[in-house]
Write a structure and sequence with these properties.
Elements lengths: L1 H16 L1 H30 L10 E8 L4 E2 L5 H10 L3 E14 L6 E8 L3 H5 L5 E2 L14 E5 H8 L9 E4 L2 E9 L11 E4 L17 E6 L5 H18 L7 E6 H6 L3 H31 L2 H9 L4 H37 L13 H27 L3 H5 L7 H39 L10 E7 L18 H14 L4 E7 L10 E3 L1 E2 L13 E9 L1 H5 L3 E4 L13 E5 H7 L9 E3 L21 E7 L14 E5 L8 E8 L7 H11 L6 E5 H8 L1 H35 L1 H9 L4 H30 L15 H27 L3 H5 L3
Parallel strand pairs: 4-9, 6-8, 16-21, 18-20
Antiparallel strand pairs: 1-2, 1-10, 1-11, 3-4, 3-10, 5-8, 6-9, 7-8, 12-22, 12-23, 13-16, 13-22, 14-16, 15-19, 17-20, 18-21, 19-20
């Protein structure tokens, strides 16, 4: 222990004596270790840390699928949930929920809250206990007994001043009075940062409380000793029974996956690839520091020889050099923690959609990872130089003329091997970066089917009471929803600077969220319900197509004459025209968004009700409602005026100037119509388009940064080894020039050595890249993982950088005076 302390003290003095070397080494290591620490912090929070619920390994998400059509639903329908909850034998509890914005009314200014409607066992399934009051009981799932609410602790403190008397707490939500019955702990959230939770209850006749509406997220806690395969069999046995009683469920099955996988989504591969990329950066940094320490060690050959002459064993010398590298790496690790902390502060700006982002922090596990990484890093870059520098020849080292003898030659060979490996690793990083950047560039060039410039969007959520118990078009009057949006769109369109206003049930790039079965009047009905094709569906109003710049390809779009009591019409997109009417003109074709009556169970369609048929009157261009990387599916548009009204709609406003400048005026218009309705989720379409590519942008930026860092480090490595080898060959260069060698010959000799190193490194890197870039295949758009052009261009660029890095020491060598060189030693 005494010897170790002496070694560390000596290492500290040596670092202090060479502040330039120490600074370069620490900064290099801080970048490499800091990048690894930052990415590991994300991986730790998202992938490794257990979910913050009781016994999270037993939690699973249950969802439905229709494998015969290749469809996987993200949830279940309300009737299916209730049957599965009642009859399953595999779960201690099953619960369901769906998210919805909630309007807090009755205050001077309306406020929208983030809320969830949940089943009574939701909190107990997750193992969450309230800090005050209680959660829900089963009776509160009954309509009429559902006016209770559980609130989050931050909301409790901000709106009630942490008052512990719950009996005095009420909230007016969506125009109805609710009593606060409980407060859940701060920090609790499920999939989102909620403020209020309400019982999942359905009004009589609510169409959402029916089969084929797979919008509920269902989570369950597996019973002890029950494995996923047993639960899968149990769930599908129940689903089979449901299909026997409800033919619309024919072909619908159930599946489950660990809740952690459901929460993480599709970011696992991207994070692991990024972790591998920063690992390469650290390896390159280690190689660079090893090269620096070899160069520094060459100047300490005499010191090592004297210590060996005084009785120090080789092991003692190795330990001394390794102590110096460990001290350097620990200092770099400490600086790396600061780099990581700074990087994580920027994370919310660039990774808005990252799951569990609120849990990302530098904790004890991250610190332990950084310390272990620092120790391993110190051993990686310190051991080879230590072995090289401790292998001293006393006669040569103590002889003044021994400076270019065997030790220097061996050092050059080792440094050359290190530079070759550095170039190979850098090429892998650069090819990965080039592929990701090229993929992102092509993604941004995708035609989304609309013009996002100068378009404002916002969300309006009408209270459920608007729809409950109301017969649409009763006595010829339009439903309240339609009347409200007619007023809002008309008044907004009259504002100065507004060119067009529309409304829609779903915005582009926000996900496909509404599908319907489609029936064709001129075709025979399919043999069974599961053979009826489905199509994406959108309900629109006003001047929606013009407000988003959606191109009309043929026919017409909706007009004011398209109402409930006129012939019903529909507009289809180009994908639907090609899919359903190949080599035909769909204009004039008659369709219905209801399955054939012959396939529906008796009593499904009320007596006197006739299936509505709609005539296709127009074809519009494909719009990407899902991700930019996904082709637009067949889509049918219907007019709200024809009966498909929604409680939640998005308004689209095209303006002449800055769309944000119109927000105060639109808010004033909304307040005049209904002061209890907040204007929420205010964005420009430019923002929505930018946010839709947050993950690929982050991946390309990080890969670009890591690739650039690897390129700089590789260039420094090539420069360092050529500069060092040139210094050792000064006398040889002088002799060659004295014997008639030209400066061009010296340049060719020096650069040839650098090019040879680069070419060998590039060859190794190309082989590695062919193997490793296949892990990027699922992250790329419009470019192959083994794109030959990318490989070739990056290889040429790296060789070009090697040429530039070698030219500086080569230029110095060309200016050597032969007489000075001959006296060099």
């Amino acid at each position: 222990m005494t010897n170790l302390w002496q070694d560390l003290r000596h290492a500290g003095r040596m670092m202090a004596k060479s502040p330039g070397f120490t600074a370069v080494a620490v900064v290099t290591l801080a970048l490499g270790i800091g990048a690894n620490t930052a990415i590991f912090s994300v991986v730790n929070a998202v992938l490794l840390r257990p979910l913050p619920y009781r016994d999270p390994a037993r939690l699973a998400q249950v969802f439905c699928n229709e494998l015969s059509k290749g469809r996987i639903f993200q949830g279940v329908s309300p009737p299916d949930f209730r049957t599965l909850r009642e009859r399953n034998r595999s779960f201690d509890s099953l619960s369901a929920l769906y998210g919805s914005p909630i309007n807090l009314t009755g205050a001077p200014e309306a406020e929208q809250l983030s809320g969830e409607f949940v089943s009574s066992e939701f909190f107990s399934t997750l193992g969450i206990k309230p800090v005050l009051g209680r959660t829900f009981v089963s009776d509160e799932e009954q309509w009429g007994s559902h006016h209770v609410v559980v609130i989050s602790e931050p909301f409790w403190r901000s709106h009630y001043g942490a008052n512990r008397n719950l009996s005095q707490m009420t909230l007016r939500l969506n125009g109805e009075q609710y009593s606060v019955v409980g407060v859940v702990p701060a920090g609790f959230q499920f999939l989102d940062n909620q403020q209020v939770w309400m019982p999942m209850a359905w009004a009589p006749g609510d169409v959402m409380n029916s089969h084929s509406n797979y919008f509920l997220t269902m989570i369950g806690r597996l019973r002890s000793g029950v494995n996923p395969q047993q639960a899968f069999a149990d769930l599908n046995s129940i689903m089979g029974g449901i299909a026997e009683r409800s033919p619309e469920n024919k072909g619908i099955g159930a599946d489950l996956k660990p809740l952690r996988d459901a929460v993480v989504g599709d970011v696992r591969q991207a994070l692991l690839v990024l972790l591998g990329a920063v690992g390469f950066v650290l390896l390159i940094a280690c190689v660079n520091i090893a090269n620096l320490m070899l160069a520094r060690g060459a100047g300490r050959q005499k010191e090592s020889a004297i210590r060996a002459a005084l009785g120090a064993s080789r092991g003692r010398l190795v330990r001394q050099f390794v102590s110096e590298s460990l001290l350097l790496s620990v200092a770099g690790g400490a600086a790396g923690l600061m780099v990581a902390d700074w990087s994580l502060r920027l994370l919310p700006l660039v990774a808005k959609s990252l799951p569990r982002a609120h849990e990302i922090r530098i904790d004890c596990w991250v610190v332990a990872f950084t310390f272990a990484l620092s120790v391993v890093t110190g051993a990686l870059f310190g051991l080879a130089p230590a072995l090289q520098c401790s292998a001293v020849g006393l006669n040569d080292s103590l002889n003044e003329s021994g400076r270019t003898s065997g030790a220097g030659s061996r050092s050059v060979k080792l440094r050359s091997v290190l530079v070759i490996s550095e170039v190979g690793l850098s090429l892998v990083l650069l090819i990965g970066a080039a592929l990701m950047i090229q993929s992102f560039r092509r993604l941004m060039q995708v035609d989304a089917g609309f013009d996002p410039a100068h378009v404002l969007t916002f969300e309006i959520d009408l209270p459920q009471s608007v729809q409950d118990g109301v017969d649409p078009y009763e006595n010829g009057a339009p439903p309240i929803q339609l009347s409200f949006f007619d007023q809002l769109l008309a008044r907004t369109a009259s504002l100065p600077g507004v060119e067009a206003v529309g409304a829609t049930s779903g915005l582009p790039l926000q996900g496909e969220n509404w599908s319907k079965l489609i029936t064709f009047a001129d075709r025979p009905a399919p043999a069974s319900l599961d053979q009826v094709p489905s199509v994406q569906y959108r309900s629109v109003s006003g001047d929606y197509f013009r407000s988003l710049g959606i191109r009309l390809l043929e026919g017409r779009i909706f007009n004011q004459g398209d109402g409930r009591y006129n012939p019903l019409v529909a507009v289809v997109n180009k994908a639907a025209a090609r899919h359903f009417w190949p080599n035909q003109n769909p204009i004039g074709k008659v369709i219905s968004m209801v399955p054939p009556e012959s396939l529906l169970p008796p009593g499904t369609i009320p007596k006197g009700y006739h299936i509505p048929w709609e005539t296709v009157v127009g074809i519009v261009d494909n719009v990407r409602y899902g991700a930019l990387s996904e082709d637009a599916p067949p889509e049918i548009y219907a007019s709200m005026a024809q009966g498909d009204t929604m409680l939640t709609n998005f308004v689209t406003v095209r303006t002449q100037g800055d769309p944000i400048a119109t927000v105060p005026f639109i808010r004033s218009v909304l307040s005049q119509i209904n002061k209890d309705l907040p204007m929420t989720n205010i964005h420009t379409m430019d923002q929505i388009r930018a946010d839709s590519v947050t993950q690929p942008r982050l991946e390309s930026v990080l890969f670009g940064f890591f690739g650039g860092l690897g390129l700089v480090l590789a260039a420094l490595g090539i420069y360092g080894v050529i500069s060092y080898s040139t210094t050792l060959r000064i006398r040889e260069i002088g002799i060659r020039m004295a014997l008639g060698a030209q400066r061009a010959d010296v340049l060719k000799m020096i650069l040839g050595y650098g090019i040879k190193l680069a070419v060998v490194g590039v060859g190794i890197g190309l082989v590695l890249s062919l193997v490793l870039t296949r892990f990027l295949a699922n992250l790329l758009y419009g470019v192959k993982a083994a794109d030959p052009l990318t490989f070739a261009v990056v290889a040429v660029v790296l060789i070009g950088v090697a040429l530039l890095a070698g030219y500086i020491p080569a230029g110095r060598a060309m200016k050597v005076d032969p007489m000075v060189a001959l006296r060099y030693e």
